Amino acid sequence: MISINDLSFAYDDGRMAIEHVSLDFKPGEKAALVGPNGAGKTTLLLHLNGILRGQGSVVVGEQAVDDRTIKAIRARVGLVFQSPDDQLFSSSVFDDVAYGLVYQGEEKIVIREKVAQALEVVGMPDSQARSPYHLSLGEKKRVALATVLCMQPEVLALDEPTAGLDPRGRRGILNLLADLDQTLIVATHDLEMVREIFPRVIIMDAGRVVYDGETQAALADRALLEAHGLIG
Amino acid sequence: MPVDIEQRASYEYGDSLLHLCDARIKITLLMVYLITTALLPVGAWAVYLLMGGVLLIVAVLSEIPASLLLKRALLLEVPILLVLIPQIFLKTGNFIEINPWSGFAFSLSLTRLERVASLLVRSWLSLQFAVIIMSATRFEDVLAGLRACGLPRMLTAIFGLMWRYLYVLLDEMHNLTQARRARSSTLQGSFKQAGGSVWWRAQVTGGMAGMLMLRSLDRSQRIYQAMQARGYDGEIRSEAAAIPLTKAQYFSIAAFILAGLLMVLLANGMAA
User: Fold this and answer.
1) N or C: where does chain A have the smaller number of CB atoms within 10 Å of the terminal CB?
2) Which CATH number characterizes residue A72's domain?
3) pTM of the predicted model, to two decimals?
4) Taking a contact as any Cβ pair under 8 Å apart, which residues of chain A between 31 and 50 contact chain B?
5) Among chain A residues, CA nearest to B193
6) How many domains in chain A?
């Protein structure tokens, strides 16, 4: 589904964010990206739908991410940012969720239907007329997820979906993620969520992949987790 | 990812003589240069040349690439050019009619030409000098320098907060546009017209502007509270500004003012 080959990226100040990363994701796979702050997890996610472009290649399906394919890739890979405030930019929940569909040129009736479905899936069916600005963090996270779910992408790339949530909000997101059929790539510090939902874990540190394999084996390896700042 | 504020601003890192010079001296030098240039009469070309020489010395002392300094100043010069250039085509004072080909003629005012050329040279000298000083001085030091030169506390606080919040606003704008880009997609093989209508795009942009305003207000409020929590009382404090000026520094300030005065007298004497 997604193939990342020898990907490297440096920010404007010359700092290497990711170095020589190569990964493959199968359709329907659920994989977690974990690692300390600054490990390059978010940077890697931003490459999946071409927000950032580094050296090396990212291929989604049969399409390499480049100028010609970027708009089609963004329909296939839905990206949800860590802060829902970065994701939500419209004056009503409906407008925000509908944005991608309107941009794609969908019919009004289809848009209304898909928006309602997406908000139903994330448990926010009555929020269409509300302003995203006035939602709680948990509600914003749900609506942020709905903004990409309504576009029915094949891949969901989520950045810290449970960060800052109270236990009930976190549980709601966990149940939601467990039920999704799409390929799921999630950057997180929440190892309990990783254990519960993701059979595969990729550990990143200082821009490199240091472990890629089964979650249970990784989480049982205390030395590995300590070495990469995943436990105190 | 947000970039370091100094890197996005006009400041160029360095340890040249100009970088190391006290901000108060640099601000005084800049003020004297700007006032002197503004007071020079039209057509005092020899004095303009002298002012250019001073500018060259300061540019060399800054050790900042000339191409970068020129680019920044010329960018600022564009609006002035746009305002001044049409002036030379007015039929005022001593003017000539030019008829390059049949059916097309325009007038060129020689009086205005000299005035416009003088204004352009003086504005460029001023902008270029300001660009050099600003490129070699951190903004906090500029504020502290302005405060030390007697600018009221309220004004320096306003400048400081405007500077700080400008980047808050830019960060927020970057995040919003990034989110919009991430969802601006087209379906493969679809014949539907993607991108939405102009009216819808305008509505989205309007919504984003409103959201930007609300979020910037919130974030600015949080920043201000954090500043207050750390003892901010409206006064910009700088280590350099706390050190009293030496006699040599006072002497150099007096020398700048005297040199500026001499330039103005010389130029007016030549013009008389």
Assistant:
1) C
2) 3.40.50.300
3) 0.70
4) 43, 49
5) A105
6) 1
